[in-house]
Prior knowledge:
The chain is mainly beta. 11% of the residues lie in helices and 33% in strands.
Amino acid sequence: xxxxxxxxxxxxxxxxxxxxxxxxxxxxxxxxxxxxxxxxxxxxxxxxxxxxxxxxxxxxxxxxxxxxxxxxxxxxxxxxxxxxxxxxxxxxxxxxxxxxxxxxxxxxxxxxxxxxxxxxxxxxxxxxxxxxxxxxxxxxxxxxxxxxxxxxxxxxxxxxxxxxxxxxxxxxxxxxxxxxxxxxxxxxxxxxxxxxxxxxxxxxxxxxxxxxxxxxxxxxxxxxxxxxxxxxxxxxxxxxxxxxxxxxxxxxxxxxxxxxxxxxxxxxxxxxxxxxxxxxxxxxxxxxxxxxxxxxxxxxxxxxxxxxxxxxxxxxxxxxxxxxxxxxxxxxxxxxxxxxxxxxxxxxxxxxxxxxxxxxxxxxxxxxxxxxxxxxxxxxxxxxxxxxxxxxxxxxxxxxxxxxxxxxxxxxxxxxxxxxxxxxxxxxxx
Length: 430
């Protein structure tokens, strides 16, 4: 028999469930439809011989054969089909509208997308190996994949990645669907990513340090963990993690916002991301377009939210549109990063651009790769749309810097030695 959490641990787990918005409340039966893993189908695990405290449980594989974890410390994520607190773990991406009762059932398959409504999307993360810290998953990351294109149905994908798990990568998704066939897109609510667990993210949870869980999905997303954002998740129920984000449904009948970036002082094409070094200047462009067929969009407000380690260069904000083809300097330009600036009114299909320059600094950059995400918002009356652009910055590691410095010192010493020898030979009597 395999040992499950003690009674007090089960109580802690139940308390956690209540604290974190009843995220692990009993769900309606869920149909597995979209799950995937890099193994091409990981074994399903069935929890048996379960008493009310979870003691004395065993695991069966999908063929009904006992699955022994004795002496096996390999992490296995989200493979239990009958988790008493959740249901089928393979269906680990679920959602509901934020105005719904979070104590009720979360939808695991299809969400009816209502215009302007905000939805909470969650990922359930459970290392099924019962061997606790001996079966700790490492470099565990979670990512949400949110398409940037419009459509009458959009899949939000969820990824769990771990370098030592079996399988190393698992996937599930949930479908947002228009009830009337109209086109819409999903807008991530920046800063909304939250982590909940029994460890450092207990009580009311903790926000992620940045939005890489969405903006860096192609590289695995964001680290999670039990005691820190360190990627370490021990095995068993007590170490379960919950990750949530918010997305907003926006139907294609109002306006569009597009944010791009390029190296400052160049005529390069603006793009969604660029590479830069500390001290480099980059130029951002925020484009507003009125997509309405007949309506004029009046008093358009543009606001920008600069990431940490990116500093605005004063007096570089310019507005371009049909009235200011050569650009008009916006003053005071600090308003762009506060309440926003009014860029005027726009006829159907008309556009306006706001451009400004920033500089990459090193206030809190980490060694290695850094992703600086600049968010912008466009506001017309009560409607807000947003978009982002990324600047990729690499900070040399200390060891590399030290070695480079030592090599430079050595080179200088060698040059001085050569000069000294040449001077000495010059003054030596022949």
